[in-house]
Design brief:
This protein has 215 residues and is of the alpha+beta class. Helix content is 35%, strand content 23%. Strand 2 (39-44) and strand 3 (47-52) form a beta hairpin. It starts with a helix and ends in a 12-residue tail after the last helix. The relative contact order is 0.15.
Length: 215
């Protein structure tokens, strides 16, 4: 884990320099409509982030102070701003990450990744509901508990949960717009998923799992 964490740190330390190689005017046109001479601004899961136009570093606003962004959120923002496809647009159709168009269908490498979180939600589903609302989620009239949560203001994720019963365990899953890969690479979708679950865990008063991304 120490070696893996070190690799994450090295990757994160390298990214500001990579960011500065890309066209910031394109980022402004596509996503960062709020900007000034020093920073580009963006909302991710109901937090305000700023990206230094000179240094390429990312911080998020915590009440009256700014804190360095962690690996998962920073990589999600860097990938969106630097690598989104021209004309990226939502389809309005949702699927799980392993079934997105353009991905190889088959075994899900993240199968079972959120089983422990689903079990925690099963103990008190109302906490999950409140956490989704706190992230700006809108409840949807489907299933037992479904929310459309804005990952970015322009890119929603569907959160779904079913309680356990006598035959089946609790189920938690994320549904992505079928065009999400126009905005983020597949690996980054996994980072974004992990960050979303981390935020939900924190809002529910659970231990946050500091782990690499899963779908």
């Amino acid at each position: 884990m120490d070696m893996a964490q070190s690799n994450y740190d090295k990757t994160l330390a390298r990214m500001p320099g990579e960011f500065l190689k890309y066209d910031q005017q394109r980022m402004i046109r596509m996503f960062c409509h709020d900007y000034d001479a020093e920073f580009l601004y963006l909302r991710l899961l109901d937090r305000c982030y700023r990206i230094s136009r000179r240094l390429g570093t990312i911080e998020w606003e915590d009440e009256s102070s700014w804190k360095p962004a962690g690996f998962l959120e920073a990589m999600t923002i860097y990938d969106l701003l630097c690598c989104a496809k021209d004309g990226a647009a939502l389809s309005g159709r949702y699927s799980q990450a392993e079934h997105l168009p353009g991905t190889m269908h088959g075994a899900n490498p993240a199968k079972g990744a959120f089983d422990d979180f689903a079990a925690s939600c099963d103990e008190d589903p109302e906490k999950l509901k409140k956490a989704c609302l706190a992230l700006g989620g809108v409840e949807l009239p489907m299933g037992e508990l479904s929310f459309q949560v804005p990952l970015f203001d322009f890119l929603p994720v569907m959160v779904q949960f079913w309680s356990s019963d006598d035959e089946f365990p609790a189920v938690f899953k994320l549904m992505w717009d079928e065009n999400v890969l126009q905005f983020l690479r597949f690996e980054t979708v996994c980072y974004a998923a992990r960050f979303l679950v981390n935020r939900l865990q924190a809002l529910m008063g659970l231990t946050v799992e500091e782990a690499e991304g899963h779908m």
